[in-house]
Design a protein that fits this description.
Helix content is 51%, strand content 5%. By secondary structure, it is mainly α. The strands form 2 sheets. It has a 3-stranded parallel beta sheet. The longest helix has 17 residues. The termini are far apart. The mean pLDDT is 93.
């Protein structure tokens, strides 16, 4: 995987050459703002690669790996060995490509990660991590990250974003994004407990659909003050279903009273909340 990897003609090479040194502006990531604010220093490749990376987790689960080695209490080395055994079966998957590009570009490793090379890669990467500057701030600067946007829930207090903004030593702009998935997914058991939390942080008593909209607007204003300009949605299949304000209020009341709601009612609620405000 050299500098011309996947560049199959002269035009592609010319375009790549003209943009390869541009700064990174990342509109969506799952980095932890707490780790950024505290400038976390990593000890192992597992911490950098496997802590919180749900794409790698998904591959591991699909391959039958026990949860102990994904989010459980197995050691970092044991988790890394499991990851190595999975990735060797994933040639052609984008994660396979990302994994080996990262090994080459940021750790100077030219080989392939597999069960046979896992120990070698583990020792090679960890030696670099512990020898060189591999704190969060160092990594962001080294990779020329100009802006990155984290994924944040409407009930978050964004305290770490405020802390990062106040730290003048950060050259990377770190901004929140508004991801209201828990408020959107009315079919889940987590909905009612979540609405109670939203009620507390927004200071809006929530009894119907309009109250939910008002509470979310309250939080949007708060996010805006901290620098948020983007929203982020995890969309399951969404089929439009027409609705009335009266129907929406009844649906929310039923759900908050722990009554069963139908698939049609779920679609009505999601349509209204996602597409437009009910007036």
């Amino acid at each position: 995987m050299n500098e011309e990897f996947l560049l199959n003609n002269d035009i592609a090479k010319e375009i790549y050459e003209s943009i390869k040194n541009l700064p990174i502006i990342d509109y969506h990531c799952h980095l932890d703002p707490k780790e950024i604010a505290e400038n976390k220093r990593f000890k192992t490749i597992t911490e950098i690669w496997l802590y919180g990376d749900h794409y790698k987790w998904r591959l591991m689960r699909a391959s039958g790996v026990d949860e102990k080695y994904i989010t459980g209490d197995a050691s970092d080395y044991e988790k890394f060995l499991k990851w190595a055994s999975v990735i060797e079966e994933c040639i052609g998957n984008p994660v396979y490509i990302f994994t080996h590009l990262e090994l080459k570009r940021y750790f100077g490793y030219d080989g392939y990660l597999s069960s046979k090379t896992a120990e070698e890669v583990w020792e090679h990467c960890n030696a670099i991590i512990n020898k060189e500057n591999f704190s969060v701030k160092d990594i962001l600067n080294k990779f020329n990250v100009e802006t990155l946007c984290t994924t944040d829930d409407p009930i978050d207090d964004l305290v770490y974003h405020k802390q990062i903004k106040a730290d003048k030593s950060y050259t990377t702009k770190v901004l929140p994004t508004f991801r209201p998935s828990f408020a959107l997914n009315i079919e889940n058991d987590t909905f009612t407990p979540y609405i109670k939390k939203l009620e507390r942080v927004s200071s809006v008593n929530i009894n119907n659909y309009k109250d939910i909209v008002d509470a979310l607007h309250n939080r949007i204003e708060f996010f805006n003050e901290v620098g948020c300009r983007l929203s982020d949605h995890a969309l399951d299949p969404l089929v439009y279903e027409d609705y009335t304000e009266k129907e929406l209020n009844e649906i929310v009341k039923k759900k908050l009273n722990n009554e069963e709601i139908s698939l049609i009612e779920i679609k009505k609620y999601k349509t209204a909340l996602f597409f437009r405000k009910c007036t």
